[in-house]
Amino acid sequence: MLRFLTGGESHGPALVAIIDGLPAGLPIREEDINTELRRRQVGYGRGGRMQIERDEVTILGGVWQGCTSGAPLVLSIANRDWENWRDRPLPAVTVPRPGHADYAGMIKYGFDDARPVLERASARETAARVAVGAVAKILLGQFGIRVGSYVERIGPAVAEIAAEPLPALWARAEESDVRCPDPTAAQAMREAIDSARAAGDSLGGIFVVGAVDLPVGLGSHVQADRRLDARLAAAVMSIPAVKGVEIGPAFQNAALPGTQVHDEFLPGTYRRPRRASNRAGGLEGGMTNGMPLIVRAAMKPIPTTLTQRRSVDMRTGEPAMTRYERSDVCAVPAASVVGEAVVAWVLADVFLEKFGGDHMDDVRAHFQREAVVLDDTPWGSA
Ligand SMILES: Cc1cc2nc3c(=O)[nH]c(=O)nc-3n(C[C@H](O)[C@H](O)[C@H](O)COP(=O)(O)O)c2cc1C
Question: Which atom number of ligand 1 is nearest to the Cα of residue 242?
Fold first, then answer.
């Protein structure tokens, strides 16, 4: 069983993650994890914190001679901002921000200061999850499985995405500071972020995570908690501020008759018929069907805004306006990288359920013997 936990606060000394259940023999290098951490930190619309942090992982355990040993993999990412606060208390937050965890967390844990709540609710925690996802990507990459993402919408600006293989979209997204493969829309996204910043406001948007070259049959239809669509939705929904998840063009499909939605089979090689389309987004019956996986996520606008919002001081019960604390204006490009991490994690988990073993040599043998991978999957971006 593959599992992980993260710990650490936004302004604490470090974030940590422990991954348990990895097979031995998986090559792990800090620089590969750091590449993913850097991808989370860039993006038009980020706040001042990302100028301070330059995330780098330290491996504290679980690696022997460059490869996993089978012991828990222990990762740590230092918070540089901690140095700025170690000798003075962080300011109390007694006025909860609409849309953040402040209010519910204060009531639940019995504080009149939201600081201990927001320190952990902060999406700074997603740095640890990106490190965990980087390890999952390394595992999947050993079997040719690639995970990527792009941004489809920021506020009012929407990309026009023609059907083309996902890796081509991902490559263009990688060149863009808003992670958008459509340059015209990318410019509109930057302008939307600039306008929101000037207005003291914030924006959300939509990102699309995909995976290609997946074997058929990861996940299962036989039990609710083994359905891969359910597991992916839970993982993507666990990203702070993500409030909607869709597999393939699910909400468009809901408006169409079945004959225009369900992907027909065309003759291919033995046990590997081709599909005429990919409106299922790569999943049928809670299992991968060999087509590209497509998970779309809606992120709400960032709750902290320079423009003050009406609230109540929890110490006095009196009306009060929210106070601004350094914040992103828009974090959809970063969330899209976090989305890749959580999707990669779930895929690594179901991959090991099907092909797992104690050592990577066992996993490779299972994969070579049993995996059915489609040769021809041209429909990337349904
Ligand atoms: C990558 C990323 C960066 C974020 N940055 C901020 C931020 O700077 N300020 C903020 O108020 N919320 C930010 N958020 C969103 C909050 O963490 C989130 O809204 C809050 O924890 C409440 O959780 P909920 O929106 O899921 O209900 C960010 C989210 C992500 C994924």
Answer: 26
